[in-house]
User: Fold these one by one.
Assistant:
Number 1:
Amino acid sequence: MSERRQGRDDGEGQGLNARIVATGADLLRGLAGEKPSLFQRDRWVGRIMDWSLGNAEFRTRLLRFVDVFPALSTSRALSHHLKEYFGDMGGPAPGPLRWAMGAASGPLAAPFLAKVIRYSIEKLGQQFIIGDTSERAMKSLSRIRSEGCAFSLDILGEAVVSEDEAEAYAGQYAVLIRDLRGAEGKWPALAGGGESRDALDWGYAPAISISLKPSSLHSQIRPQNFEGSVEAVLRRLRPLYEQLIEARGAMCIDMESYAYKGISLGVYKALRKEYPGYRDLSIAMQAYLRDTGADVEDLLAWSEKHGLPVGIRLVKGAYWDYEVVRARQNGWVIPVYTEKAETDAAFERLARLVLEHHDTAYLAAGTHNIRSIAAVLELAAQAHTPSDRYEFQVLYGMAEPVRRVLLDRVGRVRLYCPCGPIVPGMAYLVRRLLENTANQSFLRLMFSEGTDAGDLLRDPAEAVEKARDPQASTARKARALAAPPSSDLPPFENQPPADFTREEERDRFREALARVRQKLGRTYPLFINGEDRATEETEASTNPADPSEVIGWVCQARRIEADEAIAAASSAFERWRNTDASTRASYLLKAAGHLRARRFELAAWQVLEIGKQWDQASADVAEAIDFLEYYAREMERLGSPRLLPSPPGERNYSLYEARGVAVVIAPWNFPLAISCGMVSAAIVTGNCVVYKPSPLTPIIGRHLVEAFSDALLPAGVFNYVPGRTGEIAEYLIDHEAVSTIAFTGSTDVGLRIIEKAASTRQGQFQVKRVICEMGGKNAIIIDEDADLDEAVPGVLVSAFGFQGQKCSSCSRVIVVGAIYDVFVERLMGAAKSLALGPAEDPAFALGPVADDRARSRILSYIEVGDKEGRVLFQGEAPEGRNYVPVTILGDIEIGHRVAQEEIFGPVLAVMRAATFEEALDKANATRFALTGGVFSRSPDHLEAARRSFRVGNLYLNRHITGALVGRQPFGGFKLSGLGTKAGGAEYLLHFMDPRVVTENIARKGFVPEADLEDPC
Ligand SMILES: Cc1cc2nc3c(=O)[nH]c(=O)nc-3n(C[C@H](O)[C@H](O)[C@H](O)COP(=O)(O)OP(=O)(O)OC[C@H]3O[C@@H](n4cnc5c(N)ncnc54)[C@H](O)[C@@H]3O)c2cc1C
């Protein structure tokens, strides 16, 4: 909606704003100096808030402590964490904290201290949560209604990680609706509703109202599976809605993080359409999202088109920090406004839009901000919105004076009331604490900072306008330009993977799959010395989900073609080595452009040729682009000679030089990314490449030919020779003209390559160098205080993502102490919820393994595991083809084969450890050192892991796969590799030999003057 529609450019805007300010001032007067209990210092909760507001360090630690608190089941754990979290806090600590710290040191006091802390946190919880049991909740609701407020009830809970948990959650709602029905008879209708039994609140609103989060009804919501996710949520929601209709209740669909927005809207529209006669269904819309303007307009148009009135709860949005961080981490456009005033202005704009459509739309304004409330009141008056077409909503426990003044002036106030056990509801509590202590929170500014009324009521649109002021932005631009660019290239940034929350990206992927399907069955030649080279013999590359489906026919190189490729590379070498480093880098950048332009299609090939899920395939293509961009910049850095310490009369330089012909032997599991990484590193450093793709993914490998041909890379620099491993791989490795071998794959093969490369052949002029990334037996430690809401999905994606076929995959999980049973139960529930099927269909979380050989090998390991320990859980797999059921093995000890050997499939061994130290020992007790992870909220344990968890890539409190170029240079040591780090600053050095040139620049004792003045 344009600014003009809001009336800012005419007199109306000025008049409207004046009225909003006057109403706001009136409301502020109505607060009469009263403070919400949150900000009353004579109350325990108020004191905690006060300390948090005054001390940012304390606030951070407190939020973290509240977060870990549910996991601290013993007094000892509690006092230990208290010391860890607050023991070293500098500056004056609040009195009770000092007391608690003292008490934490005495062993006898620990149980007492635990009681005090539990009591305090429960008190804090009670501030925002109306009851931990249904009985208490009903009592609170009776009180709330007797005070004149309506309610909407929401059940708090842990994150739903499995379908069993989602089912249980839906069950809780069913019980809640039943209890509400039982209690309703005792509640007279609110103001104006009349006395009869059928009376409605305010004459039109049902007394029973619930709020509900779609993500709690289905554990497998995935944006790429949009329709499937909507339908799965609806399957659990429909019976609840029908029960609610029978109880004549209302429902609001809460809005969660941005990733779920489209799905929530889809659920809302579907439900509204299925039950057209029942209109007490609303949806929360977040004003802080840039998209929401269009979404609200779309919803209003949809409502008019279908003749279905809609209810909109307009809020600002509760996940601001999360959205900003998530977008930054993925390189996506930040979906929220980044200036608070922009959100406030959007709230007013959207409120106006809904109020103007009062014939078909009902507005629930969810805010505690007096300016926003006043704006809604004045906009409603201006739009002649009848009073039964809008209400106000506030959160329970947040702003009692605001609630009171709204009740006095408007009458229609609804409290959003979370209920449920306080401990699992901790995530909600942390969000509320964050919100109230945020610098720009209206409540903080008003009740804690004492900001004056003029500032509190200022028109947010004015502030937005000011920020757009060309003079202000010119000054910003000037500041930005003042910093000179460090090189001609912009700094490296990771290529964002596809964002499937966006409909257009889902459509593009679907279209790409359809396009690729039309290209199936073609024949792919070799590429040698800049030309395609057909061979008589071809091999079919097939779809692992349906091995009878041929993706394409691939020409097979024999020794003669391998010789030709090596000859082509050898003869191109000298010229290529002497090509300026920047020029070499420029070819990589052009190839990156080629891949970027085709990123959906390239990902679609991976879905069909190797069974990667949409998101996994998209991430692989993004990584390939990253390697090209990153290594191009690295070569710019390393390409010029570097001056070394040089006394007068002498010049010392170091420089790097290419080694010669590099053979690249690539795996199938990251068919484009790893191939592209090894090939581009070799090429940009001045080597010429003979590239052998995996026999399972030769067609994806062929796309590198297209990328480098498009970049006009000189002939002979890159040669593509797919072929049988037995026929040409060893031949290439043994070849006397080869100087470097870059390999990624299993440890057995890697070690054989190292051994073979070590023996010198007749006619060989160089010691061969092997750059080798091999296997892993990666472990994740689950500490006793881990956040299982994060740990379970983290382990799941690490162990079973792409069917566990990544060298970084987790294959062992080591669980510390008493948390074992809960963790394993939740993990098994989550694993049970993963559906297996063709990767092409985004409904499936997992797909087939690479081929029949892989399947047989994995199944035989499962048999071994069942003998060594036992199968704790085995999922279902479609019959035939290359599917392997997700399997979790229990009672596994460190000496067992399944705890030592790489399986490379969806098999996870669970082990126990009594202490964190024992867990670390077990994690380190293999031949491998690739990736590892820890889920813990103990600062001491995290530090111990940093120090002694010996792996190439250690991840703390996150999944252990998905390393990003530049951010997490990837590679291990021990038998996992030779310590090279792909995507890191040292990687290119492995493809080059260092040289030093020393020159005597004195002539008969004469040294140039400049050299005397400025010796290095
Ligand atoms: C009844 C009710 C139901 C709710 N339901 C939901 C829901 O379903 N989903 C949901 O996400 N939230 C929900 N909320 C929370 C709501 O989104 C707000 O977080 C909360 O109400 C604070 O907004 P305010 O107007 O009261 O306070 P204010 O202090 O005026 O606004 C704070 C809000 O401004 C925004 N903001 C803060 N900093 C910035 C910045 N730098 N740039 C841009 N914007 C910024 C954030 O949204 C923040 O929450 C609900 C709130 C209520 C009252």
Number 2:
Amino acid sequence: MSAAIGFLAAFCREHPLDDKVLLVPSFVVGRQIGDALAEAAGSWINLRFVTTSMLAAEVLERAGEAGAARPMTPSAELALTDRLFRELLAAGELEYFGRAAASPGLAVALHRAIRELRLDGRTSADLRPGQFLVERKGRELALILARYETALAADGLLDLAGLLGGAARAAAKGPLASSWVLSPLDSRLSRLEAELVRSAAAGRLVLVPGDPVVGLDRPRQAWPAPGPADLSGAGRLTWLFAPRQAPPEKEPGLEIFRALGPANECREILRRLYAEKVPFDQVEILTPPGSDHATVLYLFAARTGLPVTFGDGIPVSFTSPGRLFFGLVAWLAGDFSSDELSRLLENGDLALPAGPSGTALPARTACRLLRNAMIGWGRDRYLERLAALREGQEADLASLATGEGEEDGEDTDGRRSGFEETIAGIEALSAAIGRILDLVPRPDAAGAYDLRRLCEAFARLIGEFAGTVSDLDVRARQALLDRLGEFAAESRLPDLPLKEALGLIRTAGVSLRVGASPPLAGRLHVAALLSGGYSGRPYTFVAGLDEARVPGRGLQDPVLLDEERAAISPSLPTSADALRSGLYGLAAVLASLRGRVVLSYSSFDIVEGRESFPSSVVLQAFRLLRGDPGLDYAALEKALPEAAGFLPGGPTRAFDETDWWLDRLTAEPRPDGRRSVAANFPALAAGLAALEARAGDRLTAHDGLVDIGPLRAEVDPVNGGRAVMSATRLELLAKCPFGYFLRHILKVQPPEEVAFDRSRWLDPLQRGSLVHEILCEFMTAVAGRGEDVRTAQHAGVMTGIAEAHVARMKLRVPPPSDSIFESERREIRETLEIFMAAEEKREIKGRPLAFEMAIPGESIALDGRRSFRLRGFIDRVDLIGPDTYRIIDYKTGNPAPYEGVVHFGRGRTLQPALYAVAFEQMLARERPGSTPHVAESGYLFPSRRGEGDEIMVRDFDRGRLRSLLGDLLALLEKGYFIAGPGAKCDYCDYRAACISGGPERSAVKREANPEVFAAYDKLDEYK
Ligand code: SF4
């Protein structure tokens, strides 16, 4: 039993019926003391647990002064400080503090200084410039404090200092009558708190002794010790800082371990509990401020269901409403980035409301639609782009009705219902996003935001859209709504730039914690080091005792320096006081612990990859443990066992599945994991069989040697009839049949590119299609006038057309910045100039006849019996002689892959020849009796890299083309979908998903499969 509980038990026995008030730092602590007392002393009555602010409220209530002013929360005090600072800054009255612009960090620092001054009973009148190292700072701090005092009086507000001060004055007139006021002897109180407690108690103040701390001076803010401490019942840790004076140890109760990082430290704690079968509700884990341990334990609990209570709750950012709150801040700060909104939807933190059907649009669908709408960022683009997406889907649906949209023999009904579903989804998403955007206020003409309205918008967004799957989520939502309400009430600032407004709103949520709980049956309890240790549990782990964190750095307050504090008031705590108080508090907590105490620290920072060292507290504990005050860090290092790491060190110590697997996989004899996996998971067994087959010498179905049997009608363009080919599709078959298999047989779609790259405006595809559209319109206009392209004459026409297209594209795809847009616009203009120059110097001018000409499904014969259908678009056809034509395709990319093509490029550059044949057939049919001939067909590269060059195919043998197509389609017919020996995997969309092993792997199997490679090698004959 701790000394405090023992004392309280005795006091309750002596004064059972008297009213007793015990001051506690929080309700959670009060409840723990009550439980420990009941366990130690049996029943007790008439003991109430109150915080100092509750005591103040009670005193004011009894004095009839309770309703005189409205109490403020710390965040309301912070908001008020920030507002006053900004007002003074705007009025030009802050030269010293004005050098640092208004920011949440500065507001927090100023608020802390004002709070401490006021809790010490100081007013603006007590501050004199001469007390400060820089007089100007003193004047300005006094000014801010004076405005703060005036604002409190004018608005009838009561900050904590006002509440305590008012109560102390009221209590001086009439104390808490018959109540005993019990205050822990080691409590560190501000001057106003101490005054209140003394006045409220009058002559009935009882100081509750804690367990004595030997070897450390008492902090100035604690009650003066009434006499020498009674060491008779003290626990061993009482002598942590005086090991030389410690009595001999009666039974071992203190242990120390180290671990590789906080996560392994927490794992080691849990492993010890598992190994020793210690019930969770016998254990309390104490963690120092700012450490990651509570977070790690929370994450373990969330993942594994580990039952844990947190004495200080958890940060609101761990809950779904908290993530939505911070996500909304990031969304607005990122100019309504659609990536940020998608993240919130995907995580379920932003829950869309149910539509008329009663169900909400699934998050994945909503994210897909957001991506397809190409919003990027910008508030006004959401509804505009979603409307455009909807129009596109409606057009596709309409074209399906006329048969235009039919493709590859796909199921028309399925596509129709797909379009209808998408349109309904867009409508639902537009309605939800419309509502969200309606709630977000717009800035004023100068681009500034009304903070109050922004707070209210956040509150409504969280109220309407926060996902709440747990009780904690519900509490977090309420806590955020309350905090935002307070912030809105205190926000009387002039309109602010968005960044500043969001910074302030963010500050409102940063310190918010929810779910604080006393220890509960069946659960581990985690508490903060300085406010824990009250559970009375027999096992206590004190984690995170690293020198970087414990006992702390003792840094000076940046607003009120130590020297200035001393000059203002002898009772204002300095950095040395804070350090001493922290260390004494830690020593007092440790001294109060009974039973088994395990101290631990992290000896390696895994993230930074460097060693970390134990706190001096650990060294003291080691000295105490060994009874040798002369031991140093080297002795500690030598004595401690190896740091606990990722391996649990035995199956009984495995805390979760990860531990269990790591233990099993490293145990001797090593288990046959492969066999166990295959026996238990049929799908993985099939995967292992596929790996084995791929590793063999022969090609198998797993390398792409497949029988397309039942799919033939759908996928074989020659023997099936439903598949329609394109030049690109045929070229892919020639480049890499395995890639063709993935894309056109299995219909695996590469993931849509979702990230909007802030370093560029258009991706290569978008830029290519923009240039195509411009060139098509330009050439149509010039050809319509019967003129040849002349730069001097047509530059204006080109500019006009280009600007209109670029402007339209800019609306569709938002550029990340003006400078990036301008730079890409310049490049596009350069491309167009190169094009005009190339056209101007063309030897055979010809007459452009058609642009963007469709090949709607032309039958291409392979031989007398067999054919397939071809679909495509010809960029441009020129008439260059009697019934003689030239086909041009514009390419904005790199010409390198086409260099060296004679006619067919081994089937990998089929388009020029294929389009020529298709065009000749189509024209001959349109003009019976004519014998149209395409004399040249190829590519024009109007880019900086292409320099306006052309690569043309001329005089190719139409019979050879048919033979090539026959050989190529035979690969498909026979099901030879191997990784192409010449495949360029580096440029392949399927690279991340391809399991073929690539050309290197297939080459190994050449010898064992001559017929397959012979069929593929035949393509090499068609240069
Ligand atoms: S990654 Fe290589 S082998 Fe695989 S599909 Fe693409 S090109 Fe073919």
Number 3:
Amino acid sequence: MASTFGQLFRIATWGESHGPGVGVVVDGCPPRLAISREEIQAELDRRRPGQSRITSRRDEADQVEILSGVEDNLTTGTPIAMLVRNSDARGGDYEEMRTKYRPSHADFTYQAKYGIRTVPGGGRASARETIGRVAAGAIAAKLLSTVAGVEIVAYVKQIGDIEAKVDPATVSREKVEGNIVRCPDEILASAMIDLIDVTRKAGDSVGGVIEAVARKVPLGLGEPVFDRLEADLGKALLSLPACKGFEVGSGFAGTRLRGSQHNDPFFPEAGRVRTRTNRSGGIQGGISNGEDIVVRAAFKPTATILMAQETVDVQGNATTLQARGRHDPCVLPRAVPIVEAMMALVLADHFLRQRALCGRMT
Ligand SMILES: Cc1cc2nc3c(=O)[nH]c(=O)nc-3n(C[C@H](O)[C@H](O)[C@H](O)COP(=O)(O)O)c2cc1C
């Protein structure tokens, strides 16, 4: 089913951009995990539109309601249903898109596949769908930090041509949250903000790269062969709207090195097996090796721009579209908590799968 994700820690998201609301059902979360509405809300606040001048101006409070599965701030082991109501929808902005397809958006393919589509806000192709992922991801992250001390931090590494060098081993959430673009390098962050500002004023959009690290991940997560940890992380991130590329560890840059330069030598440290370079990005043979898991996700420039563009109408005639509405000139600042959420969901699922596997052996 296309709207469910995960095997043991499983989520199903639902809802459209301009419908009554969006949400998620989390099934398989163990009981007695301490989680409050405020902890989930804090993550949604990082994702919400209208949070700064470089995000969409749609003004949604995105207040989460927990409908089931949590009692006195403890999970009960039953399905956790969460709802966020849509309140600032302006369907009229999408009238022209009823008859014309937005270039590089989902209008044409949804229409071709289903023979029907929800026009206002792009329906389910809208990034509002990711609200459910972020709410569920907050619970997954709490599970991982509670049972294993896992820390997940994502940040903007690149906007357009501006690229920051960040050490994933030491980057902190506080540094990332220190500016509105969510890049921990303050000087480059301000250049990135200027670039997004200039692009927005021109009615255009810009893309970039988010890097994410998961620290203190237990050894042994990931399943050979089809559910390799990097394969599941790749699917998780590539399932995000506008995500067009995924790398782990040295990624594509590693292809330029020889094996002698690229290999990640082992060394002993305080009774642990460590690796020197972490070019493997914390995963070898599809299984976590105890080092930091480091991944990158590339996001394209936002499809809906406020400039006239060549397109076709629903009859297939050439025409021009002059889109309106409130759009993110760059999706990356808001995608940071979404990337963290997807990483947490994958790791929590594999943590429970590893626990089930080891449980059978003892
Ligand atoms: C946080 C976030 C915000 C987004 N905001 C917009 C937006 O304002 N306008 C838009 O056209 N696309 C936006 N997108 C991307 C679209 O949802 C996406 O391009 C669309 O679903 C088509 O999918 P594709 O680009 O992966 O092919 C956003 C994506 C994310 C992750």
